[in-house]
Amino acid sequence: MSTIRSTVDTRSEEFAENRESMLGKLAEIDGEHAKAIAGGGEKYVSRHRKRGKLLARERIELLLDEDSPFLELSPLAAWGSDYQVGASVITGIGVVEGVECMISASDPTVKGGASNPWTAKKSYRAADIAAQNRLPVINLVESGGADLPTQKEIFIPGGRIFRDLTRSSAAKVPTIALVFGNSTAGGAYLPGMSDYVVMVKERAKVFLGGPPLVKMATGEESDDESLGGAEMHARTSGLADYLAADEEDAIRLGRSIVKRLNWTKQGPTPKPDYAEPLYSAEDLLGIVPTDLKVPFDPREVIARVADGSDFDEFKPLYGSSLATGWASIHGYPVGILANAQGVLFGEESQKAAQFIQLANQIDTPLVFLHNTTGYMVGKEYEQSGIIKHGAMMINAVSNSKVPHLSVLMGASYGAGHYGMCGRAYDPRFLFAWPSAKSAVMGPQQLAGVLSIVARAAAASRGQEYNEEHDAAMRAMVEGQIEAESMPMFLSGMLYDDGIIDPRDTRTVLGLSLSVIHNGPVKGAEGFGVFRM
Ligand code: COA
Fold it and tell me: What are the CoA carboxyltransferase C-terminal domain coordinates in residue numbering (predicted)?
């Protein structure tokens, strides 16, 4: 039988403790999400409303099909930086007239919706997701353009936003701009490069240079409306394809454009008759130990994520520190690789490489569930070729062409993060649980390595080693690495696509798989040289 039988004792003290700790972390993350939702704060939100405008999130809500989900991406972008959490833009995937679209809405309540370096990074990520998954793009535009004091970080790389729009169009994936307000200078190319443009009457302002700049450049006297008003663009320049009477009308027009796209997904359709998991997602709160050094069985997670809790394990008797096997999620077939005991040995690496190749042979997406401290170190392992074996797994992950999804459940350290398809290995989506931690190694280990190196350096210089300084250095480094390994920090850096409630894992993976299937799902024809 391939149905997983859970052995989690939901009444145990340990379960209650784990649950308590996970709920605490979730509350903390909710608090940070609330900051992103609050946008520029009360003063700017009420000013925006007084102008008779909808908030960016309200625009998105009206655009989406009623009661359909919105998979928001990178909501904590810019966390820990000098900029507002969320980075003055909202990005995510939502369903419009039955079509999954990448939606990007600047938030005019945060610094006039101007793009700072984090806004740019978040927009690049959204553009990559749209391109990789063949998603039509809808931009809801109202922005002050580049954040002028930080222009040096965005001006030159930022050109890719416009490049991506026109490449999307060249790939026959439509792009739509709904312009609600200011869209000046570089921003004018958002509608300029889009296939379809809607502008709101008396609100949209699209020009390369506003009246003061024109006066400076040519001496010409002008006004907003004649330079870049919606009426002018609809009747004279032809940049606007549709003139909307108001914001609601612009959203209605946007929806009717999508309705006429004749969009069809290119990936295989899911099986319609799948079963729900046999165990409650609620249990996922109590499965991850508070101390990540204690391993947990990822099959307990799979039992709450996979259809019917059904998991056909591949090579169950070999390389037991990594579980590999076949399952389906919301009717989409997947291969799953899940760390079971933390460390990856040679056997696990070879098993992973074989399994990844098998998935490519049958065009099946892969899901990586991370909880690893990395590849095994030590004389015995080096001599038996752990580098070659790890490289084999990393080769397979790098050259695999089926879509990958990664979920950081617990630890994701060292090259283990790479082998399990970390951020640099281009998983289509990467989400983290609040319990996740990721770094080159654990904080104590890293501080310890620095201490050993410093001690050896002092000895080679013939100096005495100052133990007091060593202890202080270790404490400081441990604190720093601990902070930098936390999910909010990593999410702020755009190293994941969002921190999710473990209970939502099945839903989020299901939505991601559905999004992925907008494009074809095809395995690799060949891999690089595997070092045997
Ligand atoms: N860079 C940095 N900060 C900007 C900005 C930009 N491009 N655009 C606006 N801001 C800031 C303002 O300084 C203001 O900050 P403060 O409230 O802390 O003083 C805040 O955002 C709100 O701007 P405000 O002008 O009060 O908002 P508004 O809604 O009345 O007008 C704009 C919004 C975008 C029309 C107006 O700010 C503007 O014209 N900005 C410059 C646009 C431009 O020419 N950009 C160049 C693009 S390359």
Answer: 276-515
